Amino acid sequence: MPGTVTGPMVGRVRSAAVAGSFYPPSPGALAALVQDLMADAARLVRPDAAARTPSAPIPAGLLVPHAGLDYSGVVAAAGWSALASPTPVADGITSPLTVVILGTNHRAGWLDGIGIWDAGAWRTPLGDVLVNDRLARDAVDLGAPFVIDRDAHAAEHAIEVQLPLLQAVRPDATIVPLAVSAGTGIAAIDAGRRLGELLARLRSAGSGITLAVSTDMAHYPSAAASAEVTEALLHPIVALDPAALAAGEAAIRAARIPGLVCGMCGVEPSIVGLAALRAMGAVSATRLATATSADRGGPTDRTVGYLAVRFDA
């Protein structure tokens, strides 16, 4: 298996938890699906977004959805395709890429903070993605709410489903996985700011680093309502305004939209991520693609919304 970790590191390898449910377990079938998603994504990206999106450098950040790849994968691919170019550092010089991924916490009920997987690798049917243990340690050194918690990642899909797409566009990339349960208030914004300041320093020194936020949008209103929720929350997202996003998502949950459980299931990593991106110097955001599960064959009366956004400094 290409990229497979062997030897002493094996005990720190996270095995795939949702292969066979969120994406195919077969390497061949998964590679074929990812190839199709990337091709479909090229057609899905909004023409106005393509015109505004810089060809280089690598973006400061991405926001991408995390449902099963059959449903959200084409929108996620529209985001990850932004990393397909080498990471420029100087003329004629490129840098290895590290993606710091802020994931929604669906399962680790005990987590009160930001749980970091700090070493080793994450395995998918396509091979292993190495963890940037040095950068992970730097994040841990930021102090609370950043803590080492590999158990928080054990059964979680929000980061895992991104990796086959990342492997397709940047098989050399390393990751820093963070499971986020930091709330939506001042403390979460402060944590994001401190993380962003760390990443800004490293980027300024020439390191190739991108911050990715893994989140779906509305659960589970009609397709029309889902699209309206995405449009409403898009405004604070592209404005890089974490406080406004928190307030907007809370207002949507309080609006009693039929079927709606949340306006954004990953609002917590999104708030941390927007605060981090502001500290990294991000000044612009481009919507790349939107969709709902109904667009991929799901029912129209019970949907999940998907959004991909690129952030640039």
Quick overview:
With 313 residues, the chain is an alpha/beta fold. The chain has nine helices and 13 strands.
The tally of domains stands at: 1
Largest sheet: 8 strands, mixed
CATH evolutionary superfamily: LigB-like
Q: Note poorly predicted spans.
A: 5-9
Mean pLDDT: 92
Write a concise keyword list for the protein shown above.
313 residues, alpha/beta, Protocatechuate 4,5-dioxygenase, Chain B, eight-stranded mixed beta sheet, 36% helix, 22% strand, globular
Structure description:
With 313 residues, the protein is α/β, with parallel strands linked by helices. It has a single domain, classed as Protocatechuate 4,5-dioxygenase, Chain B, CATH 3.40.830.10. Helix content is 36%, strand content 22%. It contains nine helices and 13 strands. It has an eight-stranded mixed beta sheet, sandwiched between helices. The longest helix has 19 residues. The radius of gyration is 18 Å and the shape is globular. About 2% of the residues have low confidence.
Task: Summarize the helices and strands and which ones pair or pack.
Elements: E1 13-14, H1 27-44, H2 47-52, E2 61-64, H3 69-80, E3 87-90, E4 93-95, E5 97-104, E6 113-116, E7 121-124, E8 127-130, H4 133-140, E9 146-148, H5 163-169, E10 174-181, H6 186-204, E11 208-214, H7 223-238, H8 242-254, H9 267-279, E12 284-292, E13 305-312
Parallel strand pairs: 1-7, 2-11, 5-10, 5-11, 6-9
Antiparallel strand pairs: 2-13, 3-4, 6-10, 7-8, 12-13
